[in-house]
Amino acid sequence: MRLEGDYPGKEDEFKTLVKIRPGQPYNADEVTETTKGFTDYFGNFGYAFAQVEARPEIDRANNRVSFVLAATPSRRAYVRRINIAGNNRTRDEVLRREFRQFESSWYDAEKIKLSRDRLDRRASSRTSTSKPPTCPARPTRST
């Protein structure tokens, strides 16, 4: 396994994401996990549309296959504006303070995931604190 392409000075960090192990039988799931992990990791540096391709190199004499992970990060993507839709109860400022991805900054997949989790947590805590209507008072039974 070797890396090809543009890894912006972080080749060692990308190598830790490799799921493909030498000497093991071919496993398509490991190759897919590796390429997806690379793409997601590129997203943390603003490369939202990075392309990672796993090209096999077949050695028929030794019955071995090695992979070349070729990366093309493309241009950095910037978040221009964050639109909030479907919000009728809460002011936008209240929801925006939960965001970790800021407007006019480059795309960061980890911060977007964290922002989504914080908003989901906020929505679930709001619904979990609502109380069902109470029943009219009834005498309690003692047992």
How many β strands by DSSP? Answer: 5
Structural class of the helix and strand makeup? Answer: alpha+beta
Task: Give the termini separation.
Answer: 72 Å
Q: CATH topology of the largest domain, which one?
A: Ubiquitin-like (UB roll)
CATH class of the largest domain: Alpha Beta
The amount of helix comes to: 25-40%
The name of the CATH superfamily of the largest domain reads membrane protein fhac
**What is the average of the pLDDT values?**
80
What does this structure look like?
- 33% of the residues lie in helices and 18% in strands.
- The strands form 2 sheets. The chain has a 3-stranded mixed beta sheet, covered by helices on one side. It has a two-stranded antiparallel ribbon with strand order 4-5.
- It is α+β, with helices and mostly antiparallel strands.
- It folds into 2 domains: 2-72, Ubiquitin-like (UB roll) (Roll); 78-120, no CATH class.
- The longest helix is centred in the last third of the chain and has 21 residues, at 109-129.
- It contains 4 helices and 5 strands; from the N terminus they run E-H-H-E-E-E-H-E-H.
Helix and strand layout, with pairings?
Layout: E1 2-5, H1 11-15, H2 28-43, E2 51-59, E3 64-72, E4 78-79, H3 92-96, E5 105-106, H4 109-129
Parallel strand pairs: 1-3
Antiparallel strand pairs: 2-3, 4-5
